[in-house]
Amino acid sequence: MTLRYDVDAVVLDIEGTTSATGFVVDVLYPYSRSRFAALLTERAEDPAVSRAIAQVRELTGTPDADAVEIEKTLNSWLDEDRKATPLKTLQGIIWSEGFARGDLVSHFYDDVVPALRAWHTAGLRLYVYSSGSVAAQRAWFTSSPEGDLLPLVSGLYDTESAGPKQEPESYRRIAAATGVEPSRLLFLSDRPGELDAAAAAGWHAVGVRRPGEPYFEQGVGDHAQAGAFDEISITSSRSTT
What pairs with residue 3 in β-bridges? Predict the structure, then answer.
């Protein structure tokens, strides 16, 4: 069954939705883990790194934590798959540089890129809202197996710029920032809590269920669901792009 929506913009989650969570966990996490120490010791004065270090200290209540302690905390959060903003910031720096060097190439499910290109061509605006930092998102879309996909995307949002992904207020912030009415926004994600939050903010929400993904068995609650992007048909009767 094809799901049909008349909206002006689509907001995309990444892990489990456009891309395999396994790639992030098996490839990107170890890559960042092996480089935390050097980043914390050699570039602690960089503004983004310094801010992330301060956030780690604040979140853990350890204002005097040194680089070794902070690295241990980051690795612990990595093991927990915790969506902590400073962790995502530092991962984003490391991954961006890895993508730029050619060490890394991002992953997209086969059905995703053709759909994104078709939706963009049809005049829909595409946005990304991921727990991964904006820097990581930018690198991810720039360094895909099919080339630079960033021109397809109108904006990127993370937990620092928009807020936690399971809070309706975060989706209200994104709607305000994009200038798109909530009822004209469609959110695609594999996580029920995120879909609930988007729906509570007045958005349309579709759960993307892909076999092998962590949330596949849990399902998507009362939300509409699709197994791939080609099961979703989107048009815009009053697109502004």
Answer: 232
Average pLDDT value for residue range 166-181: 98
Q: 98-148: per-residue pLDDT in tens?
A: 999 999 999 999 999 999 999 999 999 999 999 989 999 999 999 999 999
Residues in a beta bridge with 15: 19
Read off the pLDDT of residues 192-210 as tens digits, 9 standing for 90 and up. 999 999 999 999 999 999 9
pTM: 0.87
- Which strands form 204-208's sheet, in the order they lie side by side? 155-157, 125-129, 9-12, 185-189, 204-208, 224-226
Tokens 């609650």, residue located: 221
CA angle centred on 169, ends 192 and 224, rounded to 5°: 30
Amino acid in the structure at residue 212: G
CA-to-CA separations, 226 to 23, 26, 206, in angstroms, rounded: 21, 25, 7
Tokens, residue 230: 């080609």
For the chain, the distance separating the N- and C-terminal CA atoms, rounded to the nearest angstrom, is 28
Q: How many CB atoms lie within 10 A of CB 92?
A: 23
Closest CA to 24 of 126, 111, 104: 104
Q: Give 44-50's long-range contacts (Cβ < 8 A, gap of 24+).
A: 48/89, 48/93, 48/135, 49/90, 49/93
Q: Residue 119: how many CB atoms within 10 A of its CB? A: 23
pLDDT surpassing 50 at residue 241: no
* pLDDT interval class at 240 (50, 70, 90): very low
Distance, CA of 205 to CA of 198 (rounded, Å): 7
Task: Give Cβ neighbours of residue 106 (< 8 Å, ≥ 6 apart).
Answer: 19, 23, 99, 139, 140, 141, 143, 144, 145
